[in-house]
Every structure is written in C-alpha cells, then in structure tokens.
Amino acid sequence: MVKFLGSADLPGVCLKYYVFGNHREGYGIRILRANGECANQYVSRKLSEVLDLAYQLRRCSVFPDNLGEILEDLQYDAGKDDTKKVFAYPKKVNRDVPAGKREICL
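^ thats the sequence. predicted structure below, dont judge the formating
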C-alpha cells in the first residue's frame, strides 16, 4: 500500500508526502522532493499512528534530509523495537542494506 497524503508547496520547492507498507510488516513515511531527492523511513506497525505523524510532518514542511533526524528525536528508530526496520537514504542507495530491503523512490 502506498497512500499519497498531500504536498507542501514552498517557493521553489515542492514536497510530496506518502505512507507506505502493510499490516504484516508495518508502515513508513516517504518524503519526495521535486528534484528527485527522497527519504523512506519505517515508523510503526500502527497505521493510524503513522498517518497522524505523516500529516504533522506535511504541515511542518519537513524535508527528506531531516526525516531520519526527526524520527530519531521522536524515538521512532530501530533500537526501540526489534521488529522495526530503518529505510532512510536520501538520493543515494545505502549499499550496506540487503538488496531485498531497499526502497526505490518513483
């Protein structure tokens, strides 16, 4: 499932916000910038929690570069729950992540 939540149009910048995932593996947030820069981050197994957070990030116009830091500050990270996986790599693919775990921004 990928759900578009809306965009934030700033002078010279367009940011698009998505929630992705499924009930079995959990849900994450994707922020896509018009220039192709993208960040994906796993957040939680609770869809309602992820949707609420994604709408808040959209209201605050969070950029892809800052998604990982913000979620870390809010304690949405891999260390909090061993079922959580982190998928944050703007623009460049993290080669340390196994190929089956990589997210591709379209």
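Residues 65 and 90 are 7 Å apart (CA to CA).
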